[in-house]
Amino acid sequence: MKLPKIDSNTKSFDKPLKRVYDLVDTVITNPANTARIYNSSELDEYCQKIGEINLTRIKPAQRSPADFVYIVTRLQKSGGHTRVLQDFIQSRPGAKHVILSTQICGPSDVEYVKKTFCEKLDAHYEVAPRKNFHHRLQWLQNRILELNPKKVFLFNHHQDSIAIAAVQPQLDCKFSFYHHGDHHLCLGASLKNIEHIDFNQFGFYNCREQFGIDNIYIPLTSEDRGNRQAGSFLQRRGILTCTVARSNKIEIKYPISYFEVIPELLAKTGGQHIHIGKLTPWGLFKLRRNLKKQGVSVSQFKYIPWVPSVWEAVQQHGVDLYIVSFPYSGALTLIEVMGAGIPVAMHRHLYAPSLDSIGMAYEGAFTWQKPEELINFCTSVSADELLHQGISARTQYERYHRPGLMLSRKASPHRPEKQDLSRSNKIIKRENQVRSWLMPIIFRLVRRARARFY
Fold first, then answer.
1. What 3-state class would DSSP assign to 358?
2. Measured at the alpha carbon of residue 392, what is the angle toward residues 391 and 393, in degrees to the nearest 5?
3. Domain boundaries of the chain, sorted by first residue
4. Dihedral of the CA atoms 180, 186, 191, 194 (nearest 10)?
5. Angle at the Cα of 123 (from 122 to 128), degrees rounded to 5?
6. Cα–Cα distance between 269 and 379 in angstroms, integer?
7. What is the structure's pLDDT at 386?
8. 312, burial (CB in 10 Å: exposed 0-12, middle 13-18, buried 19+)
9. Which spans in 29-175 are helix H?
10. Could you give the residue ranges of the DSSP H alpha helices within 351-413?
11. Is domain 14-221+441-453 in CATH 3.40.50.11380, yes or no?
12. What is the DSSP letter of 350?
């Protein structure tokens, strides 16, 4: 996809910004590119050139200073980067915080944002006008000029060309890029002369060693809500498992399907499973259809679209074992579960270690690759073993992810263990052959529609 030519005579940057958005969207909706393509210096430089020219056209604004500005694409009540944003604001009490949202990937959950960020954290929240990409860029750069912050944090989605174009050295403030879109191509990941923050081991070493980025490591943290009561495992007939994930983590074309593994697991263990996180109607249909095929009672499966605290939910329900989502894991959710003292079962990704977060788990955590490995573990594990692993999980949280570590800025995290990738190319080739050609097209159409109407 060729990028439009731009120079100081270009009247509107709407088309060029849209083209970058569409190009990134095309890349990230192709499963073969996941954990393969991480950044593009060409696209980042292109966005930066647009922003540099546009900034010269903005008239000096009347200033109403803020301490910290956070540029986001959209905010939802579920999602790791929303929680991290809360932590960043909470770690700087007494300061004036302003959140600026470009909204090009759809609207934010306004009620949640007002309740969580505005009322509880006393942060100010603004959204871009519902106009074209160029107008939103003008609005964003104008607001940064008016606010004249000490520092601007980028929490942009992968394809947010407006956010990357907006941040310019001429704005006379410090910038930090929080690399939360670390599994896919993400705009901003190769920006120069900007603080680059990685939050996990893989991202830190991948950016530093593969791309030569002088990054820093700030670990994910979570508020301590207490440990699980000792001796409370396997208190019912069959094991109680749980997974927390929205559709974007598990409704992915992959040789091993969550919608097939969980019904088979329940059929073999006679236990129960709780799913927390919103799934699509099609995903729920597949899951319930497979439960029926396996002869699993409806009482064995519980679906909860959202909970205010994963930590409290897994404790209140008395979860025996947390099955980390696959093919994409959730790092912050894993931390909450370990902090709650719940043992975990982690899937070893078939071709991309960066997607399974095993390096973040405690030593001795159970890992599996074939479904029968998970089923055998769940049918044979004892209460004593679960208790021992629960203690290890809690220790891992206290050592690496307790509150207060966010601002420590460690020189480097512990290096994750290397995994055998000898089957990588073979598996990727097979997956490309069997994946649906229709879903990536649908995803792109939906995202582009959001970009046009919001």
1. helix
2. 90
3. 14-221+441-453, 240-400
4. -10
5. 145
6. 6
7. 96
8. middle
9. 41-55, 80-90, 110-113, 133-147, 161-166
10. 371-380, 383-400
11. yes
12. S
Residue 369 structure tokens: 């690759």
First to last CA, the chain: 24
Phi, psi of 177 (to 5 degrees): -105, 120
Say if CB 167 and CB 175 are below 8 A apart. yes
Count CB neighbours of 396 within 10 A: 20
Domains 14-221+441-453 and 240-400 in one fold: yes
Backbone angles phi, psi at 368, to 5 degrees: -145, 155
Q: Which long-range contacts (CB under 8 A, 24 or more apart) does 86-89 make?
A: 86/116, 86/117, 86/121, 87/221, 87/406, 88/153, 88/406, 89/117, 89/121, 89/123
Q: Which of 284, 276, 210, 202 is nearest to 246 (CA)?
A: 276
Beta carbons within 10 angstroms of residue 205's beta carbon: 18
Cβ atoms of 282 and 310 closer than 8 Å: no
The encoded tokens of residue 319 equal: 């979860």
Instruction: State residue 24's pLDDT score.
Output: 95
Q: In CATH, which of 3.90.180.10, 2.60.120.10, 3.40.630.30, 3.40.50.2000 is domain 240-400?
A: 3.40.50.2000
Strands (E), 222-333: 240-244, 272-276, 301-304, 321-323
What is the full per-residue pLDDT of the chain (454 aa) written as tens digits?
689 999 999 999 999 999 999 999 999 988 888 888 899 999 999 999 999 999 999 987 777 889 999 999 999 877 778 888 988 998 889 999 999 999 998 888 888 898 889 998 999 999 999 999 999 999 999 999 999 999 999 999 999 999 999 999 999 899 999 999 888 999 999 999 899 999 888 889 999 999 999 999 998 889 999 998 777 899 888 999 999 999 989 998 899 999 999 999 999 999 999 999 999 999 999 999 999 999 999 999 999 999 999 999 999 999 999 999 999 999 999 999 999 999 999 999 998 887 888 989 999 999 999 999 999 999 999 999 999 999 999 999 999 998 876 655 555 676 665 544 333 333 333 333 334 444 455 555 555 555 555 5
Residue with tokens 């460690």: 410
Q: Is 261 exposed, middle or buried (0-12, 13-18, 19+ CB in 10 A)?
A: buried
